[in-house]
Amino acid sequence: MAPTMTQLITIAKMSIKLTSGKERELSTPGGTTELSSNNNLTFGQGALKNDIFYGERITLAGAASQTLVLGDDSLIDEFGDGIAFAKVKGIFLHNRSDDQETPTDAAVSVGGATVNPWQGFLGDAISDLIVLPAGYGIMIAGDDVNGVAVAAASNEQLKFLNDDGSDQAEIDVIIWGESL
Fold first, then answer.
1. CA 159, CA 114: separation in Å to the nearest integer?
2. Going by C-beta distance under 8 Å and a sequence separation of 6 or more, which residues neighbour residue 24?
3. What is the C-alpha to C-alpha distance for residues 139 and 76, in angstroms, rounded to an integer?
4. Which of 65, 40, 54 is nearest to 3 (CA)?
5. Global pTM?
6. What is the domain range of residue 83?
7. How high is the pLDDT of residue 25?
8. In the structure, what pLDDT confidence band is assigned to residue 16 with cuts at 50, 70 and 90?
9. Is residue 159 part of a domain?
10. How many domains does the chain have?
């Protein structure tokens, strides 16, 4: 299904600034390390463009999992329309288990779908996992024309698993890219 939105501007920023110092009697020597990367995407398809995004907070009971099918219109956008990815340009994940109403230390594993796994940013889609401890997040983003392909015919899937056997986990998921 073609997206119904007519405008989407995505600004993905990653930055880090580390400032160190050590007090001494007459001075405070130190240094600063600063790195940043900005990806600015406009509406459409191709280089520096995207036309769909999916955003959701997923709640997982202890040891539960949820699988997102990326290429079959089963993901619902903010307008209530089904969307299907042809290419993923970026993904943002944040395990919010530590700031729920009842905080937990539940870690969430990403990847490892047993049926039609999306290889995406993982080396091996079944055995390579991203494990996010409570409070941790990750963003992977690019602005090239290729993005990371989603094979629509195979209904490639991205799995989220609560690694904690009893505590609830919450993870924010935002995926942006190009539609079929």
1. 9
2. none
3. 21
4. 54
5. 0.86
6. 52-179
7. 77
8. confident
9. yes
10. 1
Backbone angle region of 155, left / alpha / beta, with phi > 0 → left and psi within -120 to 50 → alpha? left
Q: Give 100 or 105, the one with higher predicted confidence.
A: 105
Does 98 reside within a domain?
yes
Output the six-digit token pair for 148: 């990371």
Q: Which of 160, 179, 151, 158 is nearest to 61 (CA)?
A: 160
Domain with residue 104: its CATH number is 2.60.120.10
CA distance 106 to 126: 21
Q: What pLDDT does 56 receive?
A: 96
Report the C-alpha gap between 139 and 145 in whole angstroms. Answer: 19
Element (H, E) at 7: none
* Residue 45, in any domain of the structure: no
Domain assignment present for 80: yes
Q: pLDDT per residue over 41-81, tens digit each?
A: 899 998 889 999 999 999 999 999 999 999 989 999 988 99
pLDDT reading at 2 higher than 60: no
- Among residues 12, 132, 125, 8, the alpha carbon closest in space to that of 70 is found at 125
